[in-house]
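for the writeup, i need someone to sanity check this before i put it in the appendix. the sequnce is what the collaborator sent (i think, or maybe the updated version? ugh). structure was predicted straight from it, no edits. if anything looks off just tell me and ill rerun, i have time this weekend
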Amino acid sequence: MIGALRGTLLDVETDSVIVLDVAGVGYRVTVTPQTAADIAAAGEATLSVSTQVREDAIVLFGFTSSHQRRAFDLLLGAHGVGPNLAMAILSQLSVEALADAVSTAAVGTLCTVPGVGKKTAERLVVDLREKFSGFSGLPTTRAPERRVDVDDLRDALESLGFTSSEVARGVEHVDPDAPLDAQIRAALKLIGGRS
């Protein structure tokens, strides 16, 4: 499999397909329109490549960075996402914006990509959230925040030895969207202030 190419631009066939001369061999590579424009301006390129083998063809998809290529490969692991849709997503969203949209379940952002409707966007979030959160090739993004269940807070306070009435007072005015450790601190202040 071809993992990278470095060469001189021979031709721009469309806004997303270029021909790159590598040691006398012309490789047709599918890229994003922005990458095609950048290569056309520079006249040469070094691309990280994902090789996709189909029954009727071998297609090369090129990226200006390895984290773009890894994001492309992760997108292919999502239900219903083929190479063309993955390229459309990376043409519309930077890898950072994609990672942020997936980790925060920003369905609206994903729906800005042509061909991605609400159901597809929701599926992308479900299929990719964990993969993107543990993906070292991406720049650091916010970790997805999980709404803490009140039972988690009650259990934590009871394990600290508070009575059920004290726990009830502590849980009463705590922000349900805060992380558990912040909820516990807030509850301790409430319990301490009323006891």
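Residues 165 and 191 are 10 Å apart (CA to CA). The chain has a mean pLDDT of 84.
thx in advance!!
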